[in-house]
User: Which sequence fits this backbone?
């Protein structure tokens, strides 16, 4: 009886340890990817987008465009050399990348198109497959940044950059190379556009009043007053 009770005690301790290990593994960056994987399965676009820092993600997508497209890369280099900003600043007023990506993900997740496309696509820029996100290989960079290696059923590998914002891990970018994903993860979040302060109202300046005319020496002031009176 003592051996049986001791064995059951050890078994109970092992169960607790296994649960603790599973909780640790499922926490942090992996928990964020698991949440996005579940959202893809349920076609829940709101939950999927809640796992992303869309402003930072859009900013990093603009950088990806500059690297992948030669003309845009040339525009980026030219703009920086002329001191007018990179491609993201130049095109910022033309293309609302954040809104565009939000609409694409909203439609793609809710209809299931995004998940179906990423299962078969043969380019390393579509990691949105539930089982691929669940099996991602996480590498943490310090306490607030991480990268995830995601390989889809089509054997295409891409990298996701994650950053801890407050107490929550969010996806802030995707990249073909690990080094680029590390840069995105380690960078600070994209700042919100600063509000333009309203110009202070300038008080109306008092208009100068004409000085009263002084009567000439020896002039009868009463006579001047009676000149404008009509006699009956």
Assistant:
């Amino acid at each position: 009886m003592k051996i049986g009770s001791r064995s059951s005690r050890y078994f109970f301790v092992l169960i607790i340890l296994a649960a603790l290990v599973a909780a640790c593994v499922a926490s942090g960056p992996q928990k964020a990817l698991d949440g996005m994987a579940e959202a893809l399965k349920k076609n829940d676009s709101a939950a999927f987008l809640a796992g992303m820092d869309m402003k930072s993600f859009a900013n990093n997508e603009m950088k990806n465009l500059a690297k992948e497209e030669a003309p845009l890369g040339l525009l980026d280099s030219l703009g920086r050399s002329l001191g007018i900003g990179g491609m993201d600043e130049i095109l910022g007023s033309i293309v609302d990348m954040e809104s565009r990506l939000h609409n694409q993900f909203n439609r793609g997740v809710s209809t299931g198109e995004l998940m179906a496309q990423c299962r078969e696509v043969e380019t390393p820029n579509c990691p949105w497959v539930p089982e691929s996100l669940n099996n991602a290989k996480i590498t943490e960079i310090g306490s607030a940044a991480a990268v995830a290696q995601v390989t889809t059923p089509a054997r295409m590998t891409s990298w996701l950059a994650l950053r801890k914002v407050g107490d929550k891990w969010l996806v802030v970018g995707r990249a073909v190379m690990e080094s680029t994903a590390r840069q995105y993860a380690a960078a600070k979040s994209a700042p919100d556009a600063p509000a333009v302060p309203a110009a202070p109202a300038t008080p109306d300046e008092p208009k100068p009043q004409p000085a009263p005319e002084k009567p000439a020496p020896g002039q009868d002031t009463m006579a001047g007053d009676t000149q404008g009176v009509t006699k009956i």
In short: The chain is about 50% helix and 10% strand.
